[in-house]
Design a protein that fits this description.
Elements: H1 3-17, H2 32-45, E1 48-55, E2 61-64, E3 70-71, H3 77-89, E4 98-100, E5 121-123, H4 124-133, H5 137-145, H6 151-164, E6 171-172, H7 186-191, E7 194-196, H8 198-209, H9 216-227, E8 247-256, E9 259-268, E10 272-280, H10 292-309, E11 325-329, E12 332-338, E13 353-354, E14 360-361, H11 363-366, E15 371-377, E16 387-393, H12 400-406, H13 409-415, E17 421-425, H14 444-458, E18 467-475, H15 479-488, E19 495-501, H16 508-517, E20 521-526, H17 531-540, E21 549-553, H18 561-571
Parallel strand pairs: 16-17, 16-18, 18-19, 19-20, 20-21
Antiparallel strand pairs: 1-2, 1-10, 3-7, 4-5, 6-7, 8-9, 9-10, 11-12, 12-15, 13-14, 15-17
Length: about 600
């Protein structure tokens, strides 16, 4: 394989310088043998998988979640390279232009440019090569900075090119490791530097293979660079190159703690494949080739090869490790980790769940996810009495990462200067189910909060395990864990407010019990389909709880109720929930 030797030569040079179809559109793969193998691999290695593979000779396509958007990590550097060569084709960039390396260019972590002397000079073409083969972040920024005069124009140069190629969901979102240009958009918060779909990446790869993404000479050059990829622990890892007379993998890898990805062309005398594999929301954050998400990508690549060629078998390995994966953006940071105190897994869903629509939701992935997401605003400050916490339970067919960005809740906490941790436990993962696992057990909610604070203490976000004030928040089907948090959670004296966003379907007795026993407030916003439930509840408690019950009708769409009322309700909280104006907001 040529990819390692080419990278080694480049490094040395720089030192001298100084048929069967898996469902075409996801959710569940349907080709029996291949589908079962992919399902087995995903359950074996964990994480959320999306991939697309196309046999470039027959047109046969295999896929799972091909149109779902995934964080790209360094995979976004492939689209940057393609946009660069398109500008070269137009005569707007000279690839031989010398680029001077400044001290401020060497801040990003990966690669070798950070180790060179200030004022070292390389060509723009060599910067592109480093960007791909060694995934050098400094080199990537050198390339990006030459695409256009301003940051916005540079982003547009890449994204407009991608749209022109038919890639509707793939976007670069920021210059690498550049805080001052990072945005508070949903995309930027959720995906970091870039977002893509497996289908988009296969479209780009196929165009590169057919030499249509740029002129023929540029496509040949790009393929040569991609074949020089130094990192070979994913797509090439288990492919049997020894069975081929001609074999190469032209690919680009990417990885951050929760995400691993590899996209590329497998080119051989036996089969030519365009392949894009993404694994997201993975608990194994270990660096190295035995990372379980890395192994899943490698096994999927071999499964695809086996399907197209008739080969069989591959190695199997297991490792287990996880910790908090932090993601920063202006105004705060969010982390995701796994917890034994999370609602799931739970014995009552060990065999999965059959919904009203008759569809069966298997244990994996719908009830195997034990993740908790915690958002920490920069202005968060632990009080002498402990930490303020808002816990939000999502509704049906959702997951906690989508809920993190769906309703602008972190942005609202920042805007309103709310001094609290914002916590998103994972309920049933993308399933129409309100059952809430451990939250329905005595003290389940208390144990969840204790685990969150223990984790935040370990991460040096808080110093004590004390909870000061609590808000329990729920959207739609999240009403059930919210109700059990009040009824059995063991933290009712700390709960000052309950936010119900079109979420008053049942268990009203638990909410009534909480209102009658304490001094907290319940805020409810409802669309017409829950008008009767709110009216009956308000009538029953009329005169008993005063203005501590506030029910508001709205004509907002069910999915917009949180975005509509969360800012308003936060603004009306007592002063204990607000940060000190002008307080410390420095980054750690």
């Amino acid at each position: 394989m040529r990819f390692q030797s080419s990278a080694a030569l480049l490094l040395a040079g720089l030192i001298v310088l100084g048929g069967s179809l898996v469902s075409a559109r996801p959710d569940v793969v349907k080709d029996d043998a291949f589908a079962e193998e992919i399902r087995r691999l995903e359950e074996e290695f964990g994480g959320h998988l999306g991939f697309m593979a196309k046999n470039l000779e027959t047109g046969e396509t295999l896929s799972q979640n091909p149109d779902e958007r995934f964080p790209t990590a360094s995979v976004i550097k492939l689209p940057v390279m393609a946009a660069f060569y398109d500008l070269v084709r137009q005569g707007r960039l000279d690839p031989e232009m010398p680029v001077l390396l400044r001290a401020e260019d060497k801040k990003p972590g990966s690669g070798i440019l950070k180790d060179l002397s200030d004022s070292s000079s390389i060509s723009l073409r060599d910067a592109v090569r480093l960007m791909i083969t060694l995934s050098d972040n400094s080199a990537t920024n050198l390339v990006l900075d030459r695409l256009a005069p301003t940051h916005q124009e540079r982003m547009a140069a890449v994204n407009d090119f991608l749209l022109s190629q038919g890639l509707k969901e793939t976007r670069i979102l920021n210059r690498l490791y550049t805080w001052e240009t990072k945005l508070q958009t949903e995309e930027s918060i959720r995906y970091g530097i870039g977002v893509a779909t497996p289908a988009d990446m296969v479209t780009l790869l196929e165009a590169l293979h057919r030499r249509t993404v740029a002129d023929s000479a540029s496509c040949e050059e790009m393929l040569g660079i991609l074949e020089g990829q130094f990192y070979s622990s994913m797509i090439p890892r288990f492919l049997p190159s020894e069975t081929c007379e001609h074999f190469s993998v032209a690919h680009k890898t990417g990885g951050i703690q929760e995400t691993k990805a590899d996209v590329g062309l497998v080119l051989s005398d036996r089969v030519n494949i365009a392949l894009a594999v993404f694994v997201d929301k993975h608990a194994d954050h270990r660096e190295g080739i035995d990372n379980r998400a890395t192994l899943l990508v490698a096994h999927v690549a071999r499964a695809v090869w086996n399907h197209f060629t008739g080969d069989q078998g591959y190695q199997t390995r297991r490792v287990v490790e996880n910790h908090v994966d932090w993601n920063f953006f202006p105004g705060g940071r969010w982390g995701i980790y796994r917890s034994g105190a999370a609602p799931f897994p739970h014995p009552e869903r060990a065999e999965g769940f059959t919904g009203r629509d008759g569809r069966h939701y298997r244990f994996f992935p719908h009830y195997a996810d034990s993740s908790i997401v915690v958002f920490v605003p920069d202005s968060f400050k632990e009080t002498e009495e402990g930490s303020n916490v808002i816990v939000h339970f999502h509704g049906h067919n959702r997951d906690n990462l989508s809920e993190l960005v769906r309703h602008d809740m972190p942005q609202t906490v920042i805007e309103k200067n709310i001094n609290a941790l914002l916590v998103f436990p994972q309920g049933p993962y993308r399933a129409p189910d309100s059952f809430c696992g451990r939250m329905e057990e005595e003290g389940g909610f208390s144990r969840l909060l204790e685990d969150v604070l223990q984790t935040m203490q370990r991460e040096e976000v808080v110093s004590s395990l004390q909870v000061h004030r609590l808000i329990v928040s729920a959207h739609s089907g999240g009403y059930r864990p919210a109700a059990f948090a009040l009824h059995l959670g063991g933290m009712t004296e700390n709960v000052t407010d309950v936010f119900l966003f079109d979420a008053f379907y049942a268990l009203q007795d638990y909410y009534r019990e909480w209102l009658q026993k304490g001094n907290g407030r319940l805020w409810g916003a409802y669309t017409p389909h829950l008008a009767d439930e709110h009216a009956a509840f308000a009538a029953e408690l009329q005169g008993e709880v005063g203005d501590r019950l506030r029910c508001t009708a709205t004509d907002a769409d069910h999915e917009e109720v949180v975005r509509r009322f969360f800012p308003e309700w936060l603004s009306l909280l007592s002063e204990v929930w607000f940060g000190v104006p002008g307080g410390d907001t420095s980054d750690e």
